[in-house]
Write a structure and sequence with these properties.
Belongs to the CdaR family. The chain has 402 residues and is an alpha/beta fold. It is 50% helix and 14% strand. The protein folds into 3 domains: 119 residues, HprK N-terminal domain-like (Udp-n-acetylmuramoylalanyl-d-glutamate--2,6- Diaminopimelate Ligase, Chain: A, domain 1, 3-Layer(aba) Sandwich), CATH 3.40.1390; 153 residues, 2-Layer Sandwich (Alpha-Beta Plaits), CATH 3.30.70; 91 residues, Arc Repressor Mutant, subunit A (Orthogonal Bundle).
């Protein structure tokens, strides 16, 4: 897992590090750290590196400081840490202005703090994350594939702060209408798409990151799958966490919408896979209903639970053909929209006023169309049993994309 500033400032060893400007860049990744004092060596800076400045060479050189920060921004550096208290009492306002305009994070750290210690903490954290990244990325995949024993699992995680394993839950965070999003942002080549997906994984990991515990997650298509352990012990408010993940995503990816599917929590290791399959089914429900930017729990998917367990697709298709399929066939032949009208009518429990408002139809026009649908189906649409049969047909249609 790559390190971002929002993770670093939460480290106890860096409690004196203060973000003073460029706050929208707080989720920038940090690959390494260097000390740099003059603008003439900015050309040696690399992307995603954080630069530390004492000010010894430019404390009385406004133009030099401006040239330095603009050079770092052009080089796509991660951010700037200014050692305040001797050469600078604080970061100058003109630097803050440039920082804010470019979402380039600038921090202050007191002169009394050892810069060698700051550098050591940041570098050690980066190296540790790099060494841990691959094993943890594969760990969850292997758990779901039944390739990891409970003994191996506990041994691997005990080195990362976990001392007990009381509950497990899988959550999937998915980018909605991903292909449309790529098209809208003119992202076409495979390398750019891969970079975006990797950045999305880092973004989700940074949202669930804890200084004591390594995130356990992996990327699957346009979704991030992650495992929550001992959520009650950590006093996690799940609803707030999901919203924080969404907000973090929107800060990092302009105009993105995220759907979040949540499996049940279980107490036994082998049930992690069960929670994963539940989250997958829940995500399928969200997408089948055409929803975007939505959180959904497996416990709330209702009749879809039953449908997801029916493996006989032929049987489901036959049921659909005998219900909703009749209307769809009529619509295709007569250029009508009775399938959608009847769905809304059922959804509104047969209430003509609410249905007409939803469809922007006059009540008399709606009554005419419902009567026409009744003629086509040769069913009494006021019968609760009939409405249920057709509602189930709509669910089957949505869930199986018929």
């Amino acid at each position: 897992m790559e390190i971002t500033f929002d993770q670093l400032i939460n480290l106890p060893e860096l409690k004196d590090l203060k973000l003073v400007s460029g706050k929208k860049g707080i989720f920038r990744r940090v690959k390494w750290v260097h000390i740099m004092e003059t603008p003439d060596i900015v050309s040696y800076a690399q992307s995603d590196e954080v630069i530390i400045l004492t000010g010894v060479a430019i404390f009385d050189d406004k133009d030099g400081f401006v040239e330095l920060i603009k050079g770092l921004i052009k080089k796509d550096a991660a951010g700037l840490i200014v050692n305040v208290g001797k050469y600078f009492s604080k970061v100058p306002d003109y630097i803050k202005k440039i920082s804010d305009e470019n979402n380039f994070p600038v921090f202050e750290i007191p002169w009394k703090i050892s810069l060698s210690e700051v550098t050591k903490v940041i570098c050690n954290h980066i190296v540790k994350a790099y060494l841990e990244e691959l094993p943890y990325e594969n760990l969850l995949k292997n758990i779901i594939s039944d390739k990891v024993t409970y003994e191996d699992f506990t041994k691997r995680l005990s080195d990362s702060g976990y001392t007990s394993f009381k509950s497990f839950r899988i959550i999937i965070v998915s980018m909605d209408r991903f292909q449309e999003y790529l098209y809208s942002k003119n992202i076409k080549d495979e390398q750019s798409i891969f970079h975006m997906k990797s950045s999305f994984l880092r973004c989700v990991n940074s949202s669930i990151w804890d200084a004591k515990f390594q995130p356990i997650s992996f990327l699957e298509d346009e979704s991030v799958v992650f495992l929550m352990i001992n959520e009650k012990d950590k006093l996690i408010n799940l609803e707030k966490l999901l919203e924080f993940i969404r907000e973090n995503g929107k800060k990092n990816f302009l105009d993105i919408n995220l759907s979040i599917a949540v499996g049940n929590a279980y107490t036994r290791f082998f049930e992690i896979k069960t929670s994963y399959l539940e989250a997958l089914k829940t995500l399928k429900v969200i997408k089948s209903e055409g929803s975007i930017d939505k959180n959904m729990f497996y416990s709330n998917i209702g009749a879809y639970k039953l449908l997801s367990e029916i493996k006989n697709v032929t049987l489901l298709k036959e049921y659909y053909d005998e219900t909703v399929g009749i209307l769809e066939q009529y619509d295709a032949q007569n250029d009508t929209d009775f399938t959608h009208i009847f769905y809304v009518f059922i959804e509104k429990n047969g209430n003509y006023i609410q249905t007409s408002k939803k469809l922007y139809l006059h009540r008399n026009t709606l009554m005419y169309k419902i009567n026409k649908i009744q003629e086509i189906l040769k069913k009494d649409l006021t019968d609760t049993k009939v409405k249920f049969e057709f509602y189930l047909g709509y669910l089957i249609k949505n869930f199986n994309n018929f």
